[in-house]
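Colleagues,

Please find the record for the three-part complex below.
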Amino acid sequence: MRHRSDILNYHLMLLPGVILLIIFSIVPILGNVIAFQRFVPGKDILKQQWVGLDNFIFMLQIPDSKQVFWNTIAIASMKMVLGILVPLVFSLLLHEVRVGWFKQTVQSLVYLPHFMSWVILSGILVMILSLDGIVNQILILFGLDPIMFLASNKWFRHIIVWSDVWKEFGFSTIVYLAALTGVNPALYEAAEMDGASRWGKLVHITLPGIVPTIVLMLTLSMGNILNAGFEQIINLYNPIVYETGDVIDTYVYRIGLVQMQYGLATAVGLLKSVVALILIAASYRLAYRYANYRIF
Amino acid sequence: MKVKTTVTAVILIISMMMVLVGCNESDTESNSSAPQPNSQKELGGPYDAYDEPITLNIAKSISTQNTNLPSGDTVEDNEYYRFIQKKLNIIVKHEWQTETSEAYDQKMGLAISSRDLPDAFVVNEQQLKQLVEADLIADLTEVYEKTASPLIKKYYESYDDRVLSRATFDGKLMAIPSTNIGGEFNLTWIRQDWLDKLGLQPPKTVDDLVAIAEAFVKNDPDGNGVADTIGITGVPDLAGYNVTHGFDPIFGAYNAFKGLWLQDESGNVKYSSTLPEMKTALSKLRDMYASGIIDKEFAIRKDTNELVAGNKVGIVFGPWWIPYAPLSDSVKNDTKAEWRAFQLPLGENGKYNVYGQNPTGRYLVVSKDYQHPEAVMKVFNVQTDGIRKLDPESKDLYVGLNVNWTIWPLSITVDYEDVVYRGYLQLKEAWDKQDPSILTDEELKAEYENVRKNEENPKKDIAAWADATARLEAPAALAPENLNYVRNVFFGVTPTMEQKWAILSKMENETLLKIVLGEESLDAFDRFTSEWASLGGDQIIQEIEETIQE
Amino acid sequence: MVRSQTLPSRMVDLLIVLVLTVSSLACLYPIWYTIMLSFSDQAAANAGRVWLWPVGFNLGSYQIILEDAQFFKSFGISLERVLLGGAIQFILTVMMAYPLSKEKDQFPGKMYYVWFLIFCMLFSGGLIPTYLTVTNLGLQNSIWALVLPGAVPIFNVILLMNFFRNLPKELSEAAVVDGAGPWYVMLRMYVPLSLPALATVTLFSVVGHWNSFFDGLIYMSKPEYYPLQTYIQQLVVRTDPQFMQNLTSEELIQMMKVSNKTLNSAKLVVAMIPLILLYPFLQRFFIHGLVLGSVKE
């Protein structure tokens, strides 16, 4: 009896949220039919011209599609991996700090770049990376030739990835710091008495303690496998680096400048979502099968 | 069991929502298939008032900042709006408004998608086509013919048919277009004080320009002992109408142009970026870049104006109005700066080769459901007279308060194509005679005042300096006698362009830029032209030629 | 806890401090630079002369932002949405995270909900369908258009759910034995013990609402209804030729005092100030070892 009513309560707790999600998420999701139309704003949704898979085929058929898709995946994957590693390492370093005011100050400072828009940040980045900017001045000091970073296909992706990591790591650190507070201090004391080294404590207590959080963040970040960062790239790229920096979203954006691209943009969005879902589901499956661990 | 009921509940709720949404959709649907108001009804003359007051709901982009309106007046309730009510018995209201035009475009896109439109509103070309295809706006042919004021008709005529035809679909005028005035092509602005210091003359040919740029780079014109000055600035897209720092004057000297559809004598259409003249121009730019007289970082700079403001460059390509920005910053930071505009370098034909602008881009449309489309035209008539200070009843509204013309309801303007040069001629005549009384236009009078102010105390008042330089100095370089005007013959989008333009323009921008930077050889140009043609360019040209025949 | 003071350990400490300090400064500099820009004279800013200190100190940009009464009205609207929206999000986050943190045997059907949430998180109808839904419900021009569509912050729910899962099972088991129902366990036991996680999701919530500007734009028809970010975003100095050619010299002087560079910087500073103050305030909730002592081992 108690068991039954517990479950009823669980459903009850979820009900308001589910209703809101149905209204504001599911119903709009039905609008994805636009992906199969040549959508002309102004005409009724059901009266639009149906083009089946044409929008998808278009995306795959453009001469540059391989280049554009590959750029997107390459950049997004790098961001994904570093986007987990850097905040993780940083939060572990911060965790070692005992001086309260220092820890708090650092935390408060590093989360600020998250709030700056790429419009402003790109201006600053261009300044730093210019031929007479700080980075090149250091290079010259070491006797190297200055490099035009933002015009170089060798460097562009790295700039995009690292500057994004720099912008977001402080914010992601917050999650790991919260997780770190959950590690039982008694374990540390016991290890201390057993003569464990700092490194040992880290590897055998701290890390295992926050593994669930790490795995969760990694899994969720897979949802972004095709999001290379539109706002950032559109503010930093130029025709020279199209080769390595032109991604799906920037390409679709340029199409939109000339013609209506609602159908195409929706198709692309749908594609991204499907790929993301597949990846997350696959990760869940793998974690369960091989580590007997349920991520959710 | 639990799962089943949950799922059923979910499905029920979803279907309910769909019905709700669907109901709303069909409601708006039935509204727009209501019959057109009786077209036999009297439209009235251009300024005829209505017996009963009528409302006109518009959407508008207008900044509520610094309107200079007296306290109590707002952007929706002010002397101009009240005057229109008084004169025509039309009450103009804002259904919605935004502060910027970007925000406006976004909201307008959504309004069109949801088919929830005001009575009259301004749209861009893409949206105009959508509205026509979705059949949501009114045919204004008769409205224009019968109720447009003579002045407005004259304005449009100064463009021949180039403006009205853009709003005409299947022989019907579906919008009232805004006009983009001409004369805003890039001139070559040079620091006269640097020229004097180095004993140089203005450039007649491109080689002259190269020599000047070289001197600016090597001979320390700003006299600070450091080789920190740049010869010529640029932009990644290389050129563009009204784009400050575009290389257009150099392209023009070789009779080359980027991105234009040109028609030759036999009526064939060609894409200017693929012509041999372009190759010659690129070759020259490439040499210039390699020799270091073009800003090494021009392709990646975020803010090229910084160089101008910082007085690091002595040659700037830009239209007549750049004294307002960024040249004003340059002068503010260094009062010795003397900027002069030149119609140089000249092409082989001895003329300054320039091209015209897109003569329109914003369109005022009227919702099909609105009962009084001619009211919109009448408001536009009254508004235009008010702005040009031609109506004695309205010319003193807000006099002396510096209220911007955009406070009038409708966000489009029309003017003569050569209004800048016209104004300049009148201003010059008055200044030469030292007699401001011959000027009838209020704006010209204010400009005269600024010229005088600047003459008395040069550059003390930067705004006056900017006005004086932009209105009395620069337009001399717009003198038509030395100009060779080339016209783009097509501004729209063809079916193949919808498919292929993104990839074609990507190829164009990438290849041309890489050639200039030296990352690709000149031969890449030939590869580009043939690929461009086969990937869709030839087809597009064919489609354009067909459209023009009509 | 005694920390060993061996030399290698101290060197590691030093290294850590170094890395943290450098990172902090690297994060601080762009903000500092932006603040300096916002106080600078426009011509100097445009010439790139600003590095560490304001050049030509003036408050022109701030004047433009703060002069208008609308600034304060919008500030109020943003405050309203943060409080109302934040509260709704908080309640829903907790209420949804708790049942989902139960195991499958305790809550059959849980996985359907979880995948439902993931689905909603990944899939979106895009701008037009969402806009149509909200407007068809008649929510435009009301605070509800800003608060309801994002009322379920799925990422936060999953985060909190994960945190709940890692609390010791003994907690709820003991309470159940004592006769407590799920609501009691959730409110009186899980919530007080999850302060760091709750602080985290609250922070994300507040930041999300405070920074959001696009929904304010599309669902509000007049500036009077704009939340702060929507309003500030649109304060732009117009320098396009169509506009400029009709300006009088007084207007030009006005325009020349500030440029978009300094104005954008000021916009950013104003928008960020509450957030800068918020995190330090929430840091007090990041308490170590909250769970310690609540479970007898």
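Chain A touches chain C through 83 residues (CB under 8 Å).

Comments are welcome before we finalize the supplementary table.
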